[in-house]
Amino acid sequence: MTMMTGKQYRESIRRLKPEVYYLGEKIESVADHPAFLPHVNAAALTYDMALAPEFEELLSTTSHLTGEKINRYTHIHHSHDDLVKKVKMLRALGQQTGSCFQRCVGHDGLNSVYSITYDIDQKMGTDYHKRLVNLLKEVQSKDLMISGAMTDVKGDRRLSPSQQKDPDLYVHMVEKKKDGIVVSGAKAHITGAVNSHGHLVMPTAAMKAEDADYAVCFYVPVDAPGVIHIFGRQTNDTRKCNCFLDQGNVDYGIVGGEALIVFDKVFVPWERVFMCGEYEFAYELVERFATAHRQNYGGCKTGLADALIGATYALAQVQGTDRASHTRDKLVEMVHLAETLYCCSIACSCQGYALPAGSYMADPLLANVTKLNVTREVYEIARLAQDIAGGILATAPSEMDWKDARVGKYVDKYMKGVAGVPTETRLRLIRLLEGMTCGTALVESMHGAGSPQAQRIMIERQANFERKKRLAEKLAKIGEQPLLVC
Amino acid sequence: MSKNSRQVKVALKYCGSCNPRVDLSRIARHLSKVAEEREDFQLVPLSENDIDVVVILCGCPRACGNKEEVRARAKRSLFTAGESVNRQAVPETQLPMAVEQELVRILDS
Known about the structure:
CATH superfamily of the domain at 284-469 in chain A: Butyryl-CoA Dehydrogenase, subunit A, domain 3
Structural class of chain B: alpha/beta
Oligomer: heterodimer
Largest sheet of chain B: 4 strands, parallel
CATH architecture of the domain at 284-469 in chain A: Up-down Bundle
Distance between the termini of chain A: 53 Å
CATH class of chain B: Alpha Beta
Radius of gyration of chain A: 24 Å
Largest sheet of chain A: 6 strands, mixed
Mean pLDDT of chain B: 93
Structural class of chain A: alpha+beta
Number of domains of chain B: 1
Number of strands of chain A: 14
CATH architecture of chain B: 3-Layer(aba) Sandwich
Number of helices of chain B: 3
Low-confidence stretches of chain B: none
């Protein structure tokens, strides 16, 4: 088997028995519980679209390891075309789901660990890359969905991993055995964790020699003993269980579905360990992963923005404001902002380059610029959508009252917009916009793939202020005057 | 290519220098100096025929100059890409020497 359908994906995670908790309850089947269904649906679409003729050019490709046709989410980039197609794939998926489809984190993790294990082996004489390639072959042949688990809970941010009072505040090796290692700790905000097949766990920060036990990278199945998932709350999440229309985006929800993953003395066999103590490579791995993930955001968020702009335009029509000049101006501004983000992602892909392993990564400076813009412009797009939509976004009656025998007729009468368009249409658009602009989804744009300050740090590192200074000095006739500054 | 054979033709090719992260002309000046000292190779324009080695100088990792049609102009090639030589990381201060060493390795091979 190579590529799964969405249905096969659902069946595959139904067979797994991960330990998952949500709202104080142990979840028996992630694939069937209403709290997780939107996230499962979105992930399933990454499988179905890869087999759909309209999208297979973006969502499928050829394995450089086996020559087999594979889902792009299991692919290692080997060209600029691969990098660009990833961004286009994300936009296409964003348009179809209007939400997060979760699979890119593990994809970026695989690409980052693929290249860093090669570099570690070159310097240290280890065999991590071969192990990673073996995992990759399995991921490709079984079309697995992998979560990328990087962010540690971090405790006191002023302290390094080994300085924390509680040693488990960063994932670390607690025991080294003949046949593997034992790890403890927790990873936070892990997108798609509960409906993945396994977790690719990576260190979260630069490490020093004293942090060597924290420089661990490994893979575990989602239902490995000791791996515990605590699913996070989202805005209006109980609507998943008792509403339909009020969910807004019924099929795919509002964001990816994040969990806290606890590793309670989890055993990892050596063949699934890809870094164990090589602390000097931790930062490079973080930077490559961050670059790969930040590259994405002008793709997926632009796809979401396409749907959001469409919803805003449609609601303006329903409310009779679509021809107002200020509405047109704001809609144009939303498009301008969205396409600017897309330009950023395409640019950092085109300016990407090959690594010693032969795989490609996006340009780090431009990828960080992409994500930093997303932390601002997605909010601005949402603000404009709310501006056009009006206060009704925050005050509309519930679908229960709209269906109520006593007051339903009033809701229907007074919530109506232009004649000829059912009130239900207006309520559906309001709820879709509410989900996309009023809660958890926005925070994801701010902190997903790292907080704005993380991008600023990487931008500063890449900025090359000295060369810019030399350019200015030449123009201002300061000091030595080279013919050209190169 | 032995030291006693005819002077080896080495050509330089720049990526275009849109936004270089390193000083490429410093590498070129260094190679020019080395060519004078060693006398077993000469720097020639890329347009010449029978070029032995092309040194492709790219200002960033994107390595826009490292194209097949450029490499095909010579029997052998090496390239810089920002702070690297043939994809091996090299700090900017050591780039001229690292390029020289790689070129000498080719000349002596």
